[in-house]
Amino acid sequence: MYGEIIAIGDELLSGKVINTTSSFAARKLVESGYEIKRISIIGDNPKDIKHSLLTAINRSKFVIITGGLGPTSDDITNEVVADALGLKLVLNQDIFNRIIEVEKRLGLKHSKMREKLAWLPEGAQVLNPKGSAAGYLLIYQDIPLFFLPGVPEQLKDHMINQVLPRLNKLIATRLVVKQHLFRTFGLQETDINEMFFDLERSSELLTIGYYPNFPEVHVTITVKGQDKSLVEEVFDNGCKEIKKILGDAIIAEGKDTLESVLGDLLIKKDAQLSVAESCTGGLIAKRITSVSGASNWFDRSVVTYSNKAKEEILGVSTKTLEKYGAVSKQCCYEMVSTSAFKTQYALAVTGIAGPTGGSKEKPVGTVFIGLKTPEKTVVERFWFPGSRIKVQQLTAETALDWLRRHLLNGSYIPGYRPAQ
Question: 93 with 33: CB under 8 angstroms?
Fold first, then answer.
């Protein structure tokens, strides 16, 4: 059962606001077995809104319209909808009473602008009468039209708790959908695509998507069909094949991340991690501490950007810095081996993120990463291409992934190949 989404707002067309609401709505609808044929972005122009709405009604089984429901003068969705569908605007007494109540509680004079929120097209069924946003449903020519607020958090609440339950009752027939996400690192998108040439053609029900999300490549498997048992069979076989083909290039699945997977592996070993950062400036620690419960496996991070800090905090010798420099295998080795770290595992990074500071011997993008385990300490030299932030992102990803791979199979070989 297919539908479409219309997002309204000049701010979306100007780029001042990113249209995250449409992508969220589409994802939730597809997960529930619906197909989205179109997503349109329309400015605050009555003629354009009217044309888009009437066109959508003629070609789709349901329509989701977001934005333009607020109290300001540029919020014109309700007025345009009423005009387009030949409906009157009527006062919703419940919403009006709630507006009056809020105004009295806050000591505000009554405002016609706020009252505007209570005037809805006749026949509108308010989705959440007790909520702060007046999203509503209109059934027009047997087509469900859902009008939702454009504020992301309000829309998400409406989609999950109001729209999908109602749409499921209104539309009985829909596809069975199974979908899963694999996060990968160390392989190019085109290489992954070639690996799945046979799998992509194994079933008409199966599709594979490739989504670069630097520095990772995300791979999704989606299986859709009417027969639940067949969908599940194709999906399970597809997931097994993907895992077999990609192997340890899969850094995480579903809602997991590289950091959360690494944390789980360390917890299983009853071990902790420390990090010494230079060129990444705390990026590795930031990623780690984005994981709830990271304190169970993450001990500390030290950002030693200057040579003085490397000497005073990590104990890197003056002789090493003078002879080899801060960006060197010797310096990285002393950073990761510091007595300041008492944990079983440690990572250290030092490099030239650019765009300045490079030389013929050590061009911009040169990075040394050190890995310390209970058995030994290893340092590798890498060269990462791209802008300053890309060099930093690749450094952080490679360091975390290197430790993940070691914890999985005991290897000291990083997934991202070091420069020779």
Answer: no
